């Protein structure tokens, strides 16, 4: 196994034991980038000289006894909405062509303090306003979409061109591409990870979280990210938590909610079968399956769009009026549509969210977590605009991909996407675990318990 193939936890263990140096790991990742990046296009920029310098610094610090923890010397990618001092934050848009960040974002500063090494900035759907990331190819089939908006971050992890990455998630933008590329994606509880220095799409729905190869890796990154930051008005004050799950697989006594509505409606048969098999595996590990009714489902799409569209338009108000031609057509149309939404619609969406949060809180008193598909279909062909379901219903690709992930953004509950197999075409399938607010530890425990019963996952085949 080459160093770039190592999951974060394994690489960290090898570095701590002096069996692998940060320089060897960095060189391996850079060689991998040279090999696969030309046809995957996961990165906006790769800072090769900085990587090698930082790896040498990490190696010297560790040799001198200044080991900072499991992220020390680990190569990471950051979605290009996340500020790093002196670097461009392009948001994959011509609007940001001349931008340079003046300071680190909160999350970049925390990862730097933990010793992680920045490989580069990863592509996003322009300003995170989309679910496909069209400039990036799927790591398993370059003729298919990467998913979005954190497509570059997910592809980099799946292909071995970063050991871990960060993405952002406003309606599913961590979990959707994670599922479509066969990696782990975690959207934490709203407010758990600070967003200062991260370009906003919709401030009341935005989250920052890790994309990794294993559930344990996600726990390690979350531990470095979580914690209050007064510069983010939504930031929560919480005690320090060791999110790393134990090694056991016993889930006896855990109540796992299985939706009887919504989450398995208009879902591809192979996706449903894979998720149902994974649910059966959770039961075999001791979990008790409990049927649950997802509340207020008829309002989910309207609430998501009713919140996101006007907030996104407000953020872009100035440049939308002065330089609309710099936006891609799909994003510009959405931003212009937001100018036509009455204030009353936004207020009604806010009221609906309040009611939805209350109903979800009641539902989550009955179970410890909920299990469902992450997305209803695997990665579609590049350029495909719609999905036709078995009953003849036609749905837009972006609408389909956001449909099962957006409830966690509206309610703010944590959600973890874990790979659970592949379809007949070899494309990855993801299972989503949703928990109570600040219930990340339970999701990570269940995700790892399932993961430990499965064969070790390999890097994406197209890479």
Automatic annotation (TrEMBL):
Pfam families, A to Z: Amidase
Amidase domain location: 25-444
InterPro entries: Amidase (IPR000120), Amidase_CS (IPR020556), Amidase_dom (IPR023631), AS_sf (IPR036928)
Matching PANTHER family: AMIDASE AMID-RELATED, TRANSAMIDASE
Protein name: Amidase family protein
Organism listed in the record: Streptomyces phaeoluteigriseus
Lineage, top ranks: Bacteria, Bacillati, Actinomycetota, Actinomycetes, Kitasatosporales
């Amino acid at each position: 196994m080459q160093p770039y193939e190592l999951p974060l936890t394994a690489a960290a263990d090898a570095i701590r034991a002096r069996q692998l140096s940060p320089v060897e790991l960095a060189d391996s990742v850079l060689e991998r980038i040279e090999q696969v990046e030309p046809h995957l296009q996961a990165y906006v920029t790769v800072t090769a000289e900085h990587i090698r310098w930082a790896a040498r610094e990490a190696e010297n610090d560790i040799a001198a006894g200044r080991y900072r923890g499991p992220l020390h010397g680990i190569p990471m990618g950051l979605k290009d909405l996340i500020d790093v001092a002196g670097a461009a934050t392009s948001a994959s848009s011509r609007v940001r062509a001349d931008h340079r960040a003046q300071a680190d974002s909160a999350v970049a500063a925390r990862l730097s303090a933990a010793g992680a090494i920045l490989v580069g900035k990863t592509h996003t759907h322009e300003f995170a306003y989309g679910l496909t990331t069209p400039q990036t190819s799927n790591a398993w089939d370059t003729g298919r979409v990467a998913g979005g908006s954190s497509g570059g971050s997910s592809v980099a992890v799946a292909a071995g061109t970063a050991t871990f990455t960060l993405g952002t998630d406003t309606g599913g933008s961590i979990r959707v591409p994670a599922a479509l590329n066969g990696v782990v994606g975690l959207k934490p509880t709203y407010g758990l990870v600070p967003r200062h220095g991260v370009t906003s799409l919709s401030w009341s729905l935005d989250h920052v979280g890790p994309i990794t190869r294993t559930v344990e890796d996600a726990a390690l990154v979350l531990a470095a990210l979580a914690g209050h930051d007064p510069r983010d008005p939504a930031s929560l004050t919480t005690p320090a938590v060791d999110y790393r799950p134990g090694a056991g697989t016993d889930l006896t006594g855990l109540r796992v909610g299985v939706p009887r509505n919504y989450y398995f409606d208009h879902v591809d048969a192979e996706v449903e079968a894979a998720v149902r098999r994974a649910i059966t595996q959770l039961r075999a590990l001791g979990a008790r399956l409990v049927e649950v009714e997802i509340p207020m489902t008829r309002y989910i799409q309207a609430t998501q769009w009713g919140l996101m569209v006007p907030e996104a338009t407000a953020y872009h108000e100035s440049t939308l009026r002065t330089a609309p031609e710099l936006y891609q057509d799909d994003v510009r149309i959405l931003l212009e549509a937001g100018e036509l939404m009455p204030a009353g619609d936004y207020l009604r969406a806010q009221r609906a969210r309040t009611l939805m949060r209350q109903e979800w809180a009641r539902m989550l008193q009955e179970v410890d977590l909920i299990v469902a598909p992450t997305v209803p279909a695997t990665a579609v062909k590049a350029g495909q605009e719609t999905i036709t379901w078995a009953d003849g219903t036609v749905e837009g690709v972006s609408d389909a991909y956001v449909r099962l992930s957006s409830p966690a953004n509206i309610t703010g509950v944590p959600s973890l996407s874990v790979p659970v197999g592949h379809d007949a075409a070899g494309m990855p399938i993801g299972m989503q675990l949703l928990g109570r607010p600040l219930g990340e530890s339970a999701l990570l425990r269940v995700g790892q318990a399932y993961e430990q019963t499965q064969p070790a996952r390999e890097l994406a085949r197209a890479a």
